[in-house]
C-alpha cells in the first residue's frame, strides 16, 4: 500500500479506519510479514541527491515520494529489478535497481546485490526448461532438467509429449551435451542421447497397436543468455527409432523454448 | 580430561583475580611502531546483513466458465504458476479441468451419446509467455489506490478431450489487481484452440475461457 493510503486514514471515518487496519493486519499475517520480522530488513542510506519511490514495481507506476540524500531506508523485498523500501517516516514504495545500487550500507560502501550474470550462465550447475516445436510433422512439447558436470559438459533428462494427426505419444531420453564456447552469450552445443518413445495410433484413423521403441539421437543447437537466470534455447535433433520391423525410422525435430539456470 | 582440567585451573585463576588474591599481572608492553604514537583501537562492527526477500514467483488457483465448442459451457478450475523475469515479461504454466455437456445433435436426435462420461472431461496444461501492459493504479472509492496491470499471454500445451490428446495453442489477456504487495486478484480471458474431427469434418475449435483467480507472490 502506498503512503497515500496511510494519509487518507485520517480523513475517512473511524469505522473504515478500523476496517482498513484489520485488512492490513490480515494481509501482514497472510504474507507472513509479522511485526518481529521488521527488524531483519536490510538498511541502507541514500547517496544520490534523491531517491525516487514509485507506487509499484515498474517504470509505468508513478513516482509519489522522494527520499533525500543521507536518509535511511529499509529494503523490504525485491521483485524482478525493483526493490520495495520503507522510509523512516513509514512511506513504502518501489525503487529500481539502478538507483538502489547507489545507496550505501552502514559501513559506507555501496550495496551489492547477489545477481545472476553471464558468468553464472557459463558456470551454471542446474537448468530447467520447456521447449516446443515440430517432431517429424507432429507437434512436440518438452520439459528438461540439466546438470552440468563442468562448464562444457552437462547431462540432460528430457520428457516430451508428441501430438500428431495420426498418433500421439510420449518420449523420455537422456542426453550428453557439449558446449564448445560456454562463455559466449550465444553458446552453441552438440548433443548425443538415447531413450524410449511410446506411440499410440489414433483409433479413429489407423488400426494399430501401441508401440514402445528405443531411440538414439544426435543434435545441435544454441543457448542464448537473455537476462538474470533466463535462457532462450533452440535446437535440432535427428532421431533414429529402432522399430521391431525391418526398417528403422528416422525423425527430424526442431524446437525452441526457454530455460532457467540456478 | 586435559581441557577440563585446564578449564578448572583458569576458573580458579579468574576467581583469585576477582578477589584480588592473584598475582598482579603486568600488561605486556604495547608494541610501538616507528612514528606511530597512538595505537588505533578500532572496534570492528559486526554487521549481519539480512537477505533481501525476493518475490518473483506467483502461484494460485482460478475458477470460471469454459465454453467447449459444440459441447456447451461448464465450470473450469485450475492452478497456475508464474515466474516474473522482468517488470514486463513473465512465463507461466497452467493446468485446468472442465466438463463437456451435450452437443445439440445429441439432444435433438435423442440417440446414442457421442462421448462416454470420462471422454467428456476436458483437462489441459500449457506453458505461456506473458507481458504486462498498461501498469497503473486502480482507485477504489475516494482514497484507496491499488496497483494493477493488464497483461497479454500466449503459449502452447496439450488438451485431453474426447479420448484424445490434442496440441493446443492458447492466447488471452488478463487484469491483475494487487490487493497487497503479495496477494493478487486476476480476471482472465483465454481462447484455447485445438483441431477436432469428432463431428464429421476436421476443424479448429475455439474454446473460450473466462476465470477469476487468486495468486500469492513468493
Descriptive account of the structure:
- The complex is a heterodimer of chains A (262) and B (218).
- Chain A is mainly β and 262 residues long.
- Helix content of chain A is 13%, strand content 54%.
- In chain A, the strands form 3 sheets. Chain A has an 8-stranded antiparallel β-barrel with strand order 8-9-10-11-12-13-14-15. Chain A has a 5-stranded antiparallel beta sheet with strand order 6-5-4-1-7. A two-stranded antiparallel ribbon of chain A has the order 2-3.
- In chain A, strand 2 and strand 3 form a beta hairpin.
- The longest helix of chain A is centred in the first third of the chain and has 17 residues.
- The N terminus of chain A is likely disordered.
- Chain B is mainly beta and 218 residues long.
- In chain B, strands 2-3-4-5-6-7-8-9 form an 8-stranded antiparallel beta barrel.
- The N terminus of chain B is likely disordered.
- At the A-B interface, helix 1, helix 2, strand 4 and strand 5 of A face strand 1, strand 5, strand 6 and strand 7 of B.
Q: What's the helical proportion of residues of chain B?
A: 10-25%
> Can you give the mean pLDDT of chain A?
82
List the strand order in the largest sheet of chain A: 8-9-10-11-12-13-14-15
Shape by Cα distribution of chain B: elongated
| Largest sheet: number of strands, sense, barrel closure of chain A | 8 strands, antiparallel, barrel
- Please tell me how large the radius of gyration of chain A is: 27 Å
Tell me the span between the first and last alpha carbons of chain A.
32 Å
Number of helical elements of chain A: 4
Strand numbers in spatial order across the main sheet of chain B: 2-3-4-5-6-7-8-9
Largest interface: A-B, 52 and 48 residues
